[in-house]
Amino acid sequence: MASASVTTTGQPQWLDAKTQSLMDRSIAREKALSTILMTYILTGLAFMLLPGTFLGVWNLIFISKLQAAQSVAPGWIQAHGHAQIFGWVATFILGIGFYSIPKLRKMQPFPLWRAWACWALWTTGVLLRWGVTIQPWHWRALLPLSAVLELAAFALFFFTIGPAHASLKNEKMAWDTWVYVVIAATAGLLLTLLLQVLETFSLALSGASPAFPHLFDQRYLVVATWGFLVPMVWGFSARWVTVFLGLRPLRSSLLALAAAANSLGVLAALFGAFALAADALLAGAICAGTALRIFEPSVKMPKVVRVHSSFPYFVRAAFVWLAIAALLGIWASRNLAGSAGILGASRHALTVGFVAAMVFGVGQRILPSFCGMRVLASPRLMFAGLALLMAGCTLRVGSEILAYQNFAAWAWKLLPVSAVVEMTAVTLFALNLAWTFLRPPVVAPSPLTQFVE
Ligand code: HEM
Q1: Which helix (H) or strand (E) holds 6?
Q2: pLDDT of residue 40
Q3: β pairing state of 12-16 and 2-6
Q4: What 3-state DSSP class applies to 186?
Q5: Which of 62, 67, 84 has most ligand 1 atoms within 8 Å of its beta carbon, as the pocket-test mutant?
Q6: What percent of the chain is predicted at pLDDT more than 90?
Q7: Radius of gyration (Cα) for the chain, nearest Å?
Q8: Full-prediction pTM beyond 0.85?
């Protein structure tokens, strides 16, 4: 028996019952994958807003009121950092990974319950870690449990869509360089999660509080930021940003060199060689920008339909922040007189100026179509969020160095202003995505229309 159907190009076609049922199943799966992705994204946004940014703003207001970086308990600062890196950015990455990697690798469909189970384990782990560092209730049991839950979620993700998984045609697919860079980033995430498990068990056995000791925290943060977030952004930039900005083809071997220098820097920091680490991280950042040709003029028209036309400028600005973060790292590693302000400024140049700006830019470019063929609700809100993020980051990085390093007392007054500007930026980003998800799709979700550019 045959029935009428409409293709993505709008052409009616006659399909037999078997083909029709296959199409229906693929469409149902595509819808289910989009729902999973939207759940991960909305969860990430929730972590970003309240446990992440709101707590960060609260901490910064206290620090500037008392004019001392140590005036806030380390647990509260670490809870903020954990919510931002793991609650927000990593949750986005897991969701995008479940949605896009099986398609890019043309893999056999995986059982969807695994993506839901991973979400449940990950969200519970991150929430538990955040709660128990803020309020140390039964922390000797709950802190290691949170680290084990996060590691279990990662293991489920890795064994579902990791490199060992067979492709649909059972052929060995040739991997582009960007895939290797994403694998390096995934190794960085695994190392971060393993370090967490070891440290939380050690604290539970003989520690005085759930907060990580300062020295360990500094090394662990280099692994979490430079070892996981940075190569992940480079990998996905090589896949998508080159196309979106109409850049010349990637210099693949230079990107591989960037990843190698970056990994050397991360390992050096882990073993306490901070000067070598800072040099290697700067070398990696320069190689990555050159490999991606970020600062070279576009040779094709940038793909800015349905987003704000300023998008390519913000992507380039994010790479300027990456270089600033690496340069500040070099200054901090050579400054023997104490460098809490320079290190904090370097960390936020990296996390806000580079990572958050790339998530705001590329996220608002790809997520609407991944999440059920939608269109971004407001390109103007996208521009406002990115512009405020850049302004807040400039204010923050500048005033943190001036205030914390005792160069200028008036800079303490600027810090809360920077916090409110950044908070407004992240709120606009969250509103724009949530509004986008509430709007109906422009095209019925279909496996044939999933990577429309
Ligand atoms: C949006 C506004 C933000 C505000 C107001 C804020 C505020 C703060 C403050 C006050 C600290 C304490 C140390 C210092 O003064 O440097 C801190 C640390 C930190 N922040 Fe942020 N932050 C923001 C955004 C972010 C983002 C987007 C990320 C990551 C994606 C992030 C990651 C971190 C990390 C990793 C730490 C160090 C935590 C630790 O010491 O273990 N922050 N932040």
Answers
A1: strand 2-6
A2: 98
A3: antiparallel
A4: helix
A5: 84
A6: 80
A7: 22
A8: yes
